[in-house]
Amino acid sequence: MTHTGTDRMAGRTVVVTGSSGGIGRATAQRLAQMGATVAVVGRDRIRTEDAAGQIRGATRSNVHAYTADLSSQTQVRRLATELLDTLPRIDVLINNAGGYWNTRHVTDDGLERTFAINHLAPFLLTSLLLERLKDSSDGRVVTVSSNAESMGSIDFDDLQGERSYSGARAYNQSKLANVLFTHELARRLQGTSVTANALHPGVVRTAFGVDDPGRAQRVFVPLVRPFMRTPERGAATSVLLASSPDLNGVQGQFFRNGKPKRSSKSSYDQDVAARLWRTSAELVAPL
């Protein structure tokens, strides 16, 4: 098989959620250019198959399409089963899918949508794929968070925003949850071949939040859009964490602009991380 660009990822298989567009698609395309077999995961079947086909045509790599609405735990479990049934190996999982909703939405599982998609979906999918990742000599879990994690707090008394909801507060909480999850997962992976790291991709020019934007987004985003990063630039740190041999064994870090940085003080609270892990496990437990 002929690959465009470097063959650094030849022989490795990468799953990228939320990759039918935006940062995820740019991430999937770059890794396919590097020779990886890529699983493109999206919510809409036609968009996802179209993205996978275009990436396949541009890179001549093995690129497969998988469809799942990650707000549904049933569909997350179905996705995991399909990935395990069709991919002999999984070396890298990139938890890229996420979103922002200004008003409160409830999923089919009775959970607040932001928390369900941004945190519980990667928590569950990672758990379901972890044994396959451990079969890799250099398995990696890469979770896309945000600098918004520094403004977040975990409200265990109102995780679902039932008493009081703010789109920004829900989003910030979910991004802090991503980093707490990464730190706790890294602790649990000590002694295995799998590493877990999180990242901030920068402020990127995508369709993020367009389904239910807040007033600030409607007013300010059009003004600053010309200055936002392209999806390709936004994908750079995800690609680095998925592919760089220099990061073999690097564990539990938060990256910005391709460099490890300190995340918020709250994100290092091991008691909160452990409690969030237990609570998340209860929320995704099969009925």
What does this structure look like?
Mean pLDDT is 91; it is low at 1-5 and 219-225. Helix content is 43%, strand content 14%. It has helices at 22-33, 45-59, 73-86, 113-134, 167-188, 215-224, 231-243, 270-283; strands at 13-17, 37-42, 63-67, 92-95, 139-144, 194-200, 254-256, 259-261. Helix 4 (113-134) packs parallel to helix 5 (167-188) and helix 5 (167-188) packs across helix 8 (270-283). It has eight helices and eight strands; from the N terminus they run βαβαβαβαβαβααββα. The protein is globular, with a radius of gyration of 18 Å. It has 287 residues and is α/β, with parallel strands linked by helices.
Shape: globular
Can you count the beta strands?
8
The pLDDT mean sits at 91
- Helical amount: 40-55%
Which segments are poorly predicted (pLDDT under 50) over 5 or more consecutive residues? 1-5, 219-225
Task: Please summarize the sheet with the most strands.
Answer: 8 strands, mixed
How many DSSP H or I helices?
A: 8
Content-based structural category = alpha/beta
What does the radius of gyration come to? 18 Å
- Name the strands of the widest sheet in spatial order: 3-2-1-4-5-6-7-8
Topology pattern, helix = H, strand = E: EHEHEHEHEHEHHEEH
Spatial gap, N to C terminus:
45 Å
Bin the strand percentage: 5-15%
